[in-house]
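2.7 Reproducibility. Because tokenized structures are sensitive to small changes in the input, we list the exact sequence used for Outer membrane protein beta-barrel domain-containing protein, including any N-terminal residues retained from the expression construct. No trimming or masking was applied before prediction.
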Amino acid sequence: MKKLLVISFVLASAHSSGQSFVQGIVSRLSVGVKAGANYSDYVHADFKTDPLIGFHAGGIVNFRCTQQLSVQEEFLFSSQGAKIADVDRKVYYLTVPILLKYRTNLGLYFEAGGQTGMRLHEDVEGLAKQLDFGAAAGLGYQSKMGLGFGVRYVAGVSKAGMSGDFRSGVAQGSVFYIF
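Resulting structure tokens (single pass, no recycling of outputs):
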């Protein structure tokens, strides 16, 4: 009987500590929505390009490590590209930035990390590679209520085109709301 009581106590303790572990993780997670404008171009191209205006929109998942430090992952539909020979060459990506975000007590934040872009569609077949990797850095403001705005630059670190050495460069301005 004593063994049965000890086993029951151990199982009950493990169950309650497992619940508190999961609750601890969930309490640090927040989700949100984001949208904004892109200003993109190709850098180091051996042909003339002009910037192109596009947009991005999607969702945010944020995991708070401390009061100021968090890891943020986003899933964004993003319209990018450049004007080549006065023709818009748009490329549509699913971009997934993973960023380390430091937020001050005043609501100002700084972020840096990497981004992977997976090509979904392009206006001109054969221009852009299937995957585009970049380094991202930005800053902005987020209120205690969750509403915020920010700017970010994503510099391509991999070749963006099927031929040549050009890379993508995207400046973004966004508004977001984290629930």
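The chain has a mean pLDDT of 90.
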